[in-house]
Specification:
- By secondary structure, the chain is an alpha+beta fold.
- About 25% of the residues lie in helices and about 25% in strands.
- The chain has five helices and twelve strands.
- The strands form three sheets. Strands 2-1-3-4-5 form a five-stranded mixed β-sheet, with helices on both faces.
- A hairpin with a 4-residue loop joins strand 4 and strand 5.
- It is flat.
- The model has no long low-confidence stretch (mean pLDDT about 95).
């Protein structure tokens, strides 16, 4: 990675102030000069509040965000992030924040993707019919340090009020909605500049991006030499049968396509019998 990015202009494709956590990390690690793309309307690709539906999957949306910035500026190096919120993929009873950060380098034909998955999120929403319900919900989701959204009903975009971070403003807008409709729908504002919890996950994903960029191909020495597949099959220490524990990781260089297999990535040659389907069915 030596001298690959040094002193180059790195565009940050955001309109929600993500540069606050992304820029310091990448400037220190890559010696780049970060620059936020002015007047870039990333909301065209989808909004958390639902006014614009995200039509593509998160990775495609993220790539399009990067390409939009490059097209608008004529640059050749860009980074952006994209978040998704919902049930954790393993712990379904918990909400999760899944953040992706992508760097595209047109000069060296690189696309590097990193991820951070966290249950440290306040993602939530609820219909409220009283001020006491309103305030209880607000307290539960870290208001006022984290912003809120009010609307007539879930999924209703007409007259939506976003970015609420003041108690009196929250009460005023709820009172107005309640007088008209007898209830209101309150939810967390998941835009990064109104959600410090999300900013922390984006920060973690950016650190993971740096790790990806530091992993260079043994053959061509280009960054982004990453795991593309993890294969189960580690033998049980008791019966010797294959288990679901990881036997090896497969790394592939996206630049020259060199492939390498790392055996026993957890430095274990056998699996504990408690993870064996035969010994512990």
């Amino acid at each position: 990675m030596d001298n690959l990015f040094v002193t180059r202009r790195l565009l940050i494709a955001t309109q929600h102030h993500k540069e606050q956590v992304i820029a310091p990390i990448l400037e220190q690690a890559l010696y780049v000069c970060c620059e936020v793309v002015a007047d870039l309307d990333t909301d065209l690709l989808g909004t958390f509040s639902g006014e614009v539906e995200r039509k593509d999957d998160p990775i495609t949306t993220l790539r399009n965000k990067c390409l939009m910035a490059l097209d608008q500026t004529g640059g050749d190096l860009v980074v952006a992030s994209e978040g998704s919120f919902g049930p954790h993929p393993q712990m379904f009873f918990m909400s999760a924040d899944d953040e992706l950060v992508m760097l595209i380098d047109k000069k060296h034909n690189l696309e590097i993707l990193a991820r951070a998955l966290s249950v440290d999120t306040n993602f939530n929403g609820k219909e409220v019919t009283s001020e006491s319900d309103l305030l209880a919900f607000a307290e539960s989701v870290k208001f006022p340090s984290h912003g809120l959204i009010l609307r007539k009903a879930q999924g209703e975009n007409l007259g939506i009020i976003k970015g609420i971070k003041d108690l009196e403003e929250l009460k005023y807008h709820f009172s107005s909605l309640f007088e008209q409709y007898g209830s209101a729908f309150i939810e967390t504002d998941m835009r990064a500049m109104h959600n410090p919890s999300r900013m922390k996950v984006i920060e973690t994903a950016t650190h993971n991006l740096v790790k990806q960029l530091s992993s260079c191909c043994p053959q061509c020495e280009m960054p982004g030499f990453d795991i593309v597949k993890s294969n189960p099959g580690l033998q049980c220490a008791e019966c010797g049968l294959p288990t679901q524990s990881i036997l090896n990781h497969v790394y592939i260089c996206q630049h020259c396509h060199y492939e390498q297999m790392q055996m026993h990535p957890a430095n274990k040659t056998t699996a504990d019998p408690q993870y064996c389907g035969f010994c512990n069915p």
